[in-house]
Amino acid sequence: MSVPLVTLLGRVTLAFLEAIGSVSAFALQAIRCALQPPWYRKQIVHQIMEIGYYSLPVVGLTAIFTGMVLALQSYTGFARFSAESAIPNVVVVSLTRELGPVLAALMVAGRVGAAMAAEIGTMRVTEQIDALTTLSTNPYKYLVVPRLIAAVITLPILVLLADIIGVLGGFLVGVYKLDFNDAAYLRNTLDFLQFQDVFSGLVKAAVFGFLIALMGCYHGYTSKGGAQGVGMATTSAVVSASMLILTFNYFITEAFFAL
Amino acid sequence: MAPSKISLCGVTKSFGSKQVLRGIDLEVAMGESMVVIGGSGTGKSVLLKCILGLMQPDDGSIKVDGVETVDLGDHGRSQVMRKFGMLFQGGALFDSLRVWENVAFGPIQSDGMPPAKARDVAIAKLGNVGLGPEIGELFPAELSGGMQKRVALARAIAREPEIIFFDEPTTGLDPIMADVINDLIVKCVSDLGATAVSITHDMASARKIGHRIGMLHEGRLVWQGPVADIDRSGNAYVDQFIRGRAEGPIQMQVRKL
Predict the structure, then answer these.
(1) pTM of the entire predicted model
(2) ipTM score of complex
(3) Domain with A62 in it
């Protein structure tokens, strides 16, 4: 009984290590290509629009409601200890350090990571990637690098906007529902906010952007079969990107704020 | 005899325990049109992808113009690719680009041709395959299968390659459109003076576009010879294949219901 269990455990471990090796090799090849010309500027701009501009509504909505709920929940908790004045501080620090980058990245992973995997996966199964190679165009440079660069540039901008919109959400609930003085709310928000709070969130956003694009491109590029393979690639891209975002979030937080 | 343009020696390729190519030796002379025939799953596409560098053979040598291409680096591969044009079985046109942008892709992205000039080249190439300039503004999804094949052919010849590969060029087309594509292939290859390697299981196509035919079976070239000799090859595999008989040395793996 124990031997099959060990065998199974061994197979799972080997498959996991193989996957890590495969993703790492893909990432290194992509980074190597990103450092050498040619750079397809038109593709980069197109991806910046796809990842950044078109994700703005969903990220904005997520941020404003997160900020509003955060203010409301903090109030119900802090009122027990007469600590209501800490609400602006809690809202801004929670948003800039954690909720802004993590929620924005998860939203973008769902929207953009899936689209990348589906588009590149379809190109793979219809031989369009092979066609690129036969036209002397490196598929990494043409397909993968523009998406990686665009995601690393746009995610911090999206997160910065999400921070601002989220704080605005908290402000609206604080002032119009919880009867805070508007000037006092803003002063509390700004007084307690430190550069490192925002900076750590932006660093997280850049890393998350890289992970989202990497997972979308990797699963699309390595997809096999027909429609079923592309479907599996899409699911894997979103799930793996989400797991990596949550995992890396812990390690980056520890690097910035560990005692 | 013309010098060898493509030369394969002992090429093998396996996927796991399945050995697809079992030592392929093949010479294609400059300006020659070689057609490889064989049933589905005999390794025709894998052979083509190995020559193109889209797959790495496990063993053996593949030379183009006398230069070894196995294990080439990025730069060397890019140089060799410049000699190639390829017509894919499904066309493999880029969905997000207009027809003229598909045809002009190689000249613009790889050769650095200005887009306005590349557009003129694309329109001219579309004309070569019997398509008007108005087709250039459409997207691939708006075209019929036959028109997509023609656009793919225009893209394959846009950079005036020295070697053109055709992967099942007539699959999925009606017999008349298949013959139109065959005629276009013969004309384009002849106009360019290119060397051609085609894989197909359409014998009408093989007879029309090829100078020489090779029969691939279970990863081995079991017969090679001029097109004129195909009907008197004396090879049981070739005879069964070109006559389309179920009985013979080639056994189809059909599971009983």
Answers:
(1) 0.88
(2) 0.88
(3) 40-257
